From TrEMBL:
<dbReference type="InterPro" id="IPR008614">
    <property type="entry name" value="FIBP"/>
</dbReference>
<protein>
    <recommendedName>
        <fullName>Acidic fibroblast growth factor intracellular-binding protein</fullName>
    </recommendedName>
</protein>
<dbReference type="GO" id="GO:0005634">
    <property type="term" value="C:nucleus"/>
</dbReference>
<dbReference type="Pfam" id="PF05427">
    <property type="entry name" value="FIBP"/>
</dbReference>
């Protein structure tokens, strides 16, 4: 006689800890082994078989929910599982959460099947299980494909279609913006930058340089594209990075930095060289308040956010 698996339940109970282990890519046996080592469970004298049975039940549930998690509105409208709103929100947020180290490696890559095959290297580099790396890559690709052609604000579109918290949606918006504009984030000179550094830069560009900027005269109500008129205006500033102007830029920058602590001021002065861009605020004739390439500077061991 063939075996038939029957899964019967009423109110669906979710164990967040087991859910985390499933999201991290552990097998049921690995997850049960991790749980068995926890001191909080030792007084109950739960055997490995007991824990494995419970974990397998949860993993079966999570596998059934995954297709709905890929399209969160379906999870909220389905009637198969009785899950309260707070638990639904937790499931969605954790499913779309990611490891910054993994997404840092994904940035700058094309979101294709070939890139997905390279996740073995990212898994080895970041020490994140391959299954988790695949989930994170697939989530980024899914969000990108869903919102890349939509009018309106990226964060709003992501929140609408994926029901994730605004803070997490802002991170995804930055990743979508970088992917859409094909910024080269994998160059060696940028290796010292972290994921949060790129999020800060992308968020600033979305707010001030994209078509959805409030001061954009050619308003197309779309966050993913840069305002072409604004980019043309930036060409006029190219002269500022020519060799003849560098010394003047250096003097002006150091003058503007005189209010900084002496240690920081001396560090900037001694590390002035052509490797990184010091942000300087100007106003174009279109009213954009922007960070432009005034002079090139790298402060060793310092991130964009620290600056």
């Amino acid at each position: 006689m063939n075996e038939v698996e029957v899964f019967v339940g009423n109110h669906t109970t979710i164990d967040p800890e087991i859910y985390e282990l499933w999201l991290k890519g552990y097998s049921a046996n690995e997850a049960a082994g991790i749980l068995q080592k926890q001191e909080s469970l030792q007084p109950f004298q739960a055997t490995l078989e007991d824990l494995l049975s419970d974990v397998q039940d949860h993993f079966h549930l999570f596998n059934g929910l995954e297709n709905m998690l890929k399209s969160p509105p379906r999870l909220q409208n389905q009637q198969v599982y009785q899950i309260d709103e707070a638990t639904q929100a937790m499931l969605i947020e954790k499913y779309y959460s990611f490891d910054a180290s993994v997404i840092r490696e994904v940035l700058g890559r094309k979101l294709t099947s070939r890139s997905r095959k390279d996740l073995d290297d990212i898994s080895e580099l970041t020490c994140i299980p391959l299954r988790s790396c695949r989930r994170q890559f697939d989530n980024v690709k899914r969000v990108f494909k869903t919102v890349e052609e939509l009018k309106g604000y990226l964060v709003d579109n992501i929140c609408t279609h994926f029901r994730m918290p605004e803070a997490l949606a802002r991170d995804y918006a930055a990743v979508v913006f970088i992917a859409n504009n094909r910024f080269e984030t994998g160059k060696k000179k940028l290796n010292y930058l972290h994921f949060r550094d790129f999020v800060a830069c992308a968020t600033h560009m979305i707010t001030n340089w994209s078509y959805s900027s409030v001061v954009c005269t050619n308003h197309e109500d779309m966050d993913v594209d840069l305002d072409r008129n604004f980019l043309q205006l930036l060409r006029e500033l190219k002269v500022l990075i020519e060799k003849d102007c560098l010394e003047e830029h250096r003097a002006l920058m150091l003058k503007a930095a005189q209010g900084l602590p002496e240690r920081v001021y001396m560090h900037i002065d001694s590390n002035f060289r052509v490797e990184w861009f010091w942000p300087f605020t100007v106003n174009s004739e279109h009213g954009h308040e922007v960070y432009i390439i005034l002079t090139q500077l790298k402060v060793k061991g310092t991130s964009v956010i620290d600056l």
